[in-house]
Every structure is written in C-alpha cells, then in structure tokens.
Amino acid sequence: MRILVHPGFHKTGTTSVQYGLERNAGVLGARVRVLQMDDFPDAIAAARRHTAQPAPRRLKKYATGFAAAVAPLDPGDPRPLLVTSEKLLGWIPGRKENWSYDATPDFTERLADVLEGHFGTGAELTFYFTTRAAGDWARSVYWQNLRSMRITEDFAAYRPRLERAARLDDVVAATRARLGARARVISRPIEALSEEPQGPLGAILRELGVAADDLMPFKSYNMQPAGGVEELLRLNRSDLDEAALNAAKRERIQAYQREGLTRKKAGG
Description:
The chain is of the alpha/beta class. The protein is built from 12 helices and 5 strands. The protein has a 5-stranded parallel β-sheet with strand order 2-3-1-4-5, sandwiched between helices. Helix 4 packs parallel to helix 5 (104-119) and helix 5 crosses helix 8 (168-179).
C-alpha cells in the first residue's frame, strides 16, 4: 500500500492541492483515500502550540491527534492514502513568533510512527514537500501575514526575519536524515509544476499511482492582487483601532475575492 504525506510547506501551492481534491472528490473517491485538515484538528492545534512554544508533551498530543484521524481507516483497503495539509507543520513562519521550520523533522517522525503503527512497516511511505524560490516564498508569506496581523514593516524590512525559514531545501534534507530508510522524502519546486495539467495535485497523484488526467480543471488565482500589499500596509499603519482595522481589511479582501483576484481561502 502506498501512503503519501504532503505537509507543505506553507505558500507552496497547498491550497491548490486542497481545492483540487475538493472539486474532484466524486471522481477520486474510488481511487484514493484522503485526509485533510478537518480530519485532524487536534494534531493541528498541537502543532501550532509546539511551534509557538516547543514542548515534548505537545509532540505527544500531536501524534495522538493524528492517530485519531488514522484509526478509522481500514488497513486492508487497497486504495492509496494521501494526507495533505500545511498546518501539520504548525504556524506559518511569522505567526506567534515562529520564525523557522525547525520542528519539521520531529513532526514527520511522529507522523511516520502513527502510520507505521496502523498500516504496518510494509507500507510504502513518502513525504512529499512542495517548495518555492526563497524570494517568492518570502513575499507570499509576507502578504499572508500582512492580511492577518498588524505588520507595519515593508517587505524589505520584514524579509530578513524570514531568511532562516526560507531555506526549505535544508528542512527537507534534515527531514530525510531524520527518517532515514523509514520513508522516502522528496521535494518538488512549484515553479517546475506550473506546466503540469493539474498542477501540484496532478504530480502528487501520479506519485501515488493514481490517474489524474480526467480531473476537472480549476482556476489558478493570483494570491497577491496588484497594489494589495501597499493598500493593506497603509491600513496597518493607520490610526484605526483593531476592530476598525480588521473590518477595513476584511472589506478590502472581500472586494478582491469578488473581483476574482484571490481565493476565499488564504492558505497555501
């Protein structure tokens, strides 16, 4: 049996993968089992707490929360399993003073423990990371955090704080070293997946041996509308109180959504 875990990274096409799975659930149900963020809320909560304040007890709760999601799955079902959510890696860098992906090897080790315990060591386990060029990744993270936080620094001032987290290939290498022969650890830059007929989702499904050629296409959105950074930065720097600021940003983002410039979901 094949198992593929796609835990991110944040801002590397993960929302596109999740949206594609949702849009094609009827077609894919007979071909692949899928676990997404709504299936393991306790694991996500523990991951976020751990990236904010690392503690062994939080890693234990992380494993327990993920095990609860895996428990109902029949080990005898021949369909491959796809687990996908960037939230398995905790807070996006920049939130809750989390500025790295240092916990990723610990997280993946716990996920491997749970999956091996449930499906046996004979299962083919792959951890599949989507990555992105450091500069583009940092700009996307900045936009994401600008939307949800009162950041008043411009990108040039903010970017140095993301430099450590932006070394995504180093995180993949550390994860590969940690897991060793227990799992295959691979990464694909989203820039190389842009020409794929179904984008990152198609590549992931093919890695699992799942047919993807007949999936319904879905629109790819620009997550940073032209002028959006400047507009939200101006609001963040204004003298609006928090309630008024949040309302103003929400109204502006909803306008972008109505104009088809960004998705309703900001993740990915």
